[in-house]
Amino acid sequence: MHVLLVEDDRDVAEALQGALGRYGYHVAWVATGGHALTAPDADFVLLDLGLPDMDGLDVCREFRARGDVPLIVISGRGSETERVVGLELGADDYLVKPFLVRELIARMRAVLRRHSVRPGGPHRPPTAPRDLYGRVAVDRRGHRAYLDGSEVRLSPKEYALLAFLTERVDSLVTRETIMSSVWDSNWLGPTKTLDTHVTALRHKLGEALSIQSVRGVGFRLGVRSALPLPTENDATPAGVH
Hints:
Blueprint: E1 2-6, H1 10-22, E2 26-30, H2 33-38, E3 44-47, H3 56-66, E4 71-75, H4 80-88, E5 93-96, H5 101-116, E6 131-133, E7 136-139, E8 144-147, E9 150-152, H6 156-166, E10 172-174, H7 175-183, H8 192-205, E11 209-214, E12 218-223
Parallel strand pairs: 1-2, 1-3, 3-4, 4-5
Antiparallel strand pairs: 6-7, 7-8, 8-9, 10-12, 11-12
Helix pairs in contact: 6-7, 6-8
C-alpha cells in the first residue's frame, strides 16, 4: 500500500517512514501542503495540520473535494474544536501527537475496513494491484495472498509474516527483527511461535516460495519460478518460439 505522509518535521517523518515500512507500507513524504496536493495519487494519506505554507485543514478539505482517499489527521493540535473541524471536513480519523505506531496502524486498518463497506465500494478499483513473487501474489491493500490466482486463507499473523518477508526477498532476516516487526517491538519471549507460522506458510504455499531457515540467525525467503523449467521431454507449444 502506498501512503502519502504530509509532515513538515523531518525527524517525525523519517521515524514514521521507517516504522510504517516495517509493516509493509510504501511511504512517500512531502513537507508542504502544496507538494501534497500535487503528489501522485496514494492509497492512504497521513496529514499533519501545522504545515509551513498552508493550513492542513485546507489540505484536508481539498483532498476530500477530489475523492474518497482514506485520510487520517496526525497533529499536535488536540483541542476538541480542532478534532471536530478536521472530522467535519472529511478526515476519517484524528490522532493527536505523540502516539504509538501500533495505534496508528490499528486506526489505518479500521479506516480501510470502513472504506471497504461503504455504499458504492471503496475508492480504489475493484481489482486491487497485486505484487507478484513468482506464483504468489500479495494484495497489500486487501491483506490477502494468492497462489496461482486462487486466494490462500491466511491468519492475520501469517499474512503479516508473508508481507514482511516478501519485502525482503533473498535477504537474511534475523529472528529478532521479524519478531519485533511482525509481533511486537518489545517482544521478549520465546520465538517458537515464529517457527509455527513459518511452517504454516510453507504448508499453504507449497513450493511456490522457499523460506530457508538459517540456524541460529533467521530466515531467507526466495521466489521460485512462476512456471516449471522445461525438460527435454517437453514439447514446444504452438506459436511459442
